Amino acid sequence: MVKEPAGVERRWLLVYPDAYEVGQPNQGVQILYEVLNERPAVAAERGYAPWPDMEALQREHAIPFFSLESHLPMAAFDVVGFSLSAEVGATNVLTCLDLGGVPLRAVDRSEGDPLVLAGGHAAFNPEPLAPFFDVVVAGDGEEFVLELDDLLARAQQHGWSRQALLERVARLEGAYVPALYEPVYEEAVVTGESLPRLRATRPRRSDLPERIPKRTVADLDAWPYPKRQLVPLTETVHERYAVEIFRGCTRGCRFCQAGMITRPVRERSKATIEAMVADGLASTGLEEVGLLSLSSADHSEIRGLCGDLADAYDGTKTSLSLPSTRVDAFNVELAEELSRGGRRSGLTFAPEAGTERMRAVINKHASEADMLRTAEAAYASGWRHLKLYFMIGLPTETDDDVLGIAELGLKVAAIGRQHGRKHKVTVSVGGFVPKAHTPFQWCAQDPPEEIRRKLTLLRQRVSAERNLTVRAHDPEPGLVEGLLARGDRRVADVVERAWSLGARLDGWAEHFDLGAWQRACEELGIDPAWFTQRPRDVDEALPWDHLDSGLDRDWLRDDYEDALAGRELDDCRWGSCYDCGVCLGLDLDHELAAGHGASLRASPG
Amino acid sequence: MRARVRYAKLGKLRFVSAIDLGRVWERSLRRARVPIAYSEGFHAHPKVSFPDALPLGYASVAEYAELRFTEPIDLPEAMARLNACLPEGMDVRSAVEVADGAPRLAKWLRASVWDLGYPDAAAAALPPAVRAVVEADEVLVERLRKEERTTLDLRPAIHHLSTTDDADDGVSIPTVRATLHHVEPPMRPSEVHQALDDAARRVAGVALPAPTVTTRIAQGEPTEEGLREALDGTLVPSHPENPEEATYRDRQPAARRDPGHDDIGVAHPRAHPHPHAQR
To answer: Are B179 and B237 in contact (CB under 8 A)?
Structure first.
């Protein structure tokens, strides 16, 4: 990837707006980094958010935000692309831009400034950050960055102005240029509410699409990246050779934004995965392989894949891991295969909710009997520590549902004790934050004090059980996450104000500063509860309506109603199509490695 | 089979900690397909050990590692392969096979030669400061540890201290070479700088700017003429060398590397002046 200097014409800076140790393993950045660098005329470099002590030193010595590779200042790049994996990176984006000497708001940028781009899951509701970006793209970035790069080349060739370039970018499929769209608010305020509701977000010009479609790469085998995964020299959160075995998910968990916005399922073939693993391990020297996806046990060839990989690396020092959200015996079977003769210390499951009723609401298919059988199988196979993931604050949740988490944890602990006196169970609890483009996008979020009360309830119930540990984060950052997840463009002022009041690295408990956010909201007359804790009308305009995730709004509403009625929905990868809108809209089908998706399911309608 | 190697840690690798460096070794050995032995047990780790740790931030051409292989190997060939897989800034510069039961390597590492490379502005102040430190009976330096300030005498640790003769030539880097005994507690080059700065203030009334890069040049047995390097016995002079005469501090191996995998930041050389770069 070292380039002849003479050939480089366009420079991309890919920024993950969090610390290096968190951002370095990010697959999205690594994929785009490679895809762009394969072009001889492009140099893509990376950047990460500075820790506050580094930021202070940079400001003291007037050192701008610079790239990791060449230490080039941000302003020397043609494009600065931010990967928005999580909402709480918002203030870090502003830190990076400001340190880079790039005006925070798109409207203040001029000809010489880089084009500021954003993508990633959190870009599916870009509005709270819309004024800070020139371009936003929702969905898969591989093809889009190359199309944008083609446009840049033409812009350089023809000397287009910034405005001329942006107008052309806006016509690229999937490009959202916030400056060319305008949110319109109602004139009257609904009685009892603090802000006028949104009427619509409209294009400022008639030749622009009213709704911007997400981008979807149909064939993952055609994009086998990263081929040359970067090996960190300083410790990061995930040190493994990671292969994305499929994109998309059809389990239909109603709380899960990732599962909703990445449909349809596109599996990588077993042959491609095995080749990527072999090449990846040989060239990186990493000692762990992660088979990644939203629910890896669901790959249509997972059994054969795990068997082959376990055979290939048996007796080597290479370990295999398979993050999975399923809660059934099959998971244990796969985990057994992958840890043949190896260490079996901890195994993780995600029941997500404590009672059958609550699990029906969120569409997490798992009966209690299933889960207890799974726990039994896991302890019997030699695991000594099970971790169970749950959420609290889910729609329709009662105290009984919260206590159900405790009861389930206690039952699992009791099973563990039959296998060993010191066998443990950890119950990990997160506060639910409703997200855009999900059936729960209309739901009210529990305020932090309610989450705290429920946590206390849960903790009290299990306090006598020594083999059970409850893990939970402070609920306050969830308030900011919720505001950013479902806020509209008016929230951008709050973000900038909170940042100028010192909000930094909001995803880190030691840095999160609720006071800065509260003060910013008060000064600007924005009540965060109006965005987060107010149940929204199903026909109310939503700030992300103009971004098309492919999901039919009527389907989302039906699924929301099914949720409230406790009606479950099958996985459409195997069951019948329930017409969520994605496959038809994209003219795609679930792409399964084993055979063809179309033959496995009934045709819609 | 066991081997002892001397390796360099230069450039951005200066900022990789001793703990992280263990993983760098493991992954590089795996990439090079060198048959390194692993410990038994669930937490198997490769049999690579280090006699001491280089403090973070210092460069070195004189670090050591001891490796154990699962089978006899052609050492020079394996080290050449390893060098092609080590990150930029790191390379093995000599390797010797050792017999089982050989005395511990640490036993031979009695002193270190350090080069403190100063900015040009320090050139005039260095010779008198060095003289003052050498002539003193006691050189007190302060050390802050866990908010507790202690005073230590650096002088007994100094085996030799000298500086570039004519650093004013505008070409060579003003350098102080310090040969320090490995004493308890260990004395660091930063404390040599502290002593030189104190001396410069006292003698000439000027502060000494901090060295830009400090490099460990050799470790071994201190002698009258210098220091005898631990692995191959080369005599390293106690006076800073002219770059042309520096036989010991060999240059980077010529082999071209593939820097694609190690995340030290792959440099893309600059193109023609960038339109935005002036601002």
So the answer is: no
